[in-house]
């Protein structure tokens, strides 16, 4: 596989037509972040990676020998996004019994309403305030690995300074305590992928909605598409509250590296179903 840099990445774009998680893929194709590989100068198979979060997009001919080689060496718990219906056949040949198929909710931002978003951005409980992430706040959030937000925010950027220079985000704070963060998980020439997290003790107060509204407004004001992709029903309901239009569900894959982990997950699902407990995928 040949690593592709700079403007040459766009010659791979046709391999990834129809992919979900498009702002993440676009961020890599635009050479804003991540890594890209192709099988030849005129590619028939390609790979886009966000190594810091183990997100992988596979495009093109999955029967190509390079696809088998790549999957053979893929790290455990990598999340794989594919548009090809033939992926499962290939995956089962390379690592039989070691894959988990999960579901995500896709949304369109076409019908977002700025007036509604501005109203939602004001629904802040007493004692809280919204702060745009600046360099000082970014460093305190992203460099301290004991801070729970550091695992999810700014991780695809080179540094806190790089995040502030190319990305953006908002925090909802109670005094000096950061309760909720909404930020650009990835950014491309045309849009962003949104990441939102709230500390457990602050959930249920509407903080994530406020932070998200500020982030989306900033994105729209700067002519960037604010892409929302939900892994849970809670996230899907929030998207609709903010004005996103549901586009159905799609599947992605996680390589567990272990048949035992896959077996345990199946047993857990059977037990939860038997007792009427919904399984929410994070």
Your description of this structure?
- By secondary structure, this protein is of the alpha+beta class.
- It has helices at residues 22-29, 65-72, 87-94, 114-120, 135-142, 160-166, 207-221, 233-242, 259-274; strands spanning 2-4, 35-38, 45-50, 55-60, 78-82, 99-108, 129-132, 169-174, 177-187, 191-198, 225-227, 229-230, 245-255.
- The strands form 2 sheets. An 8-stranded mixed sheet has the order 1-2-3-4-5-13-6-12. A 5-stranded mixed sheet has the order 7-8-9-10-11.
SSE inventory with pairings:
Layout (H helix, E strand, L loop, with lengths): L1 E3 L17 H8 L5 E4 L6 E6 L4 E6 L4 H8 L5 E5 L4 H8 L4 E10 L5 H7 L8 E4 L2 H8 L17 H7 L2 E6 L2 E11 L3 E8 L8 H15 L3 E3 L1 E2 L2 H10 L2 E11 L3 H16 L8
Parallel strand pairs: 4-5, 10-11
Antiparallel strand pairs: 1-2, 2-3, 3-4, 5-13, 6-12, 6-13, 7-8, 8-9, 9-10
Helix pairs in contact: 4-7, 5-6
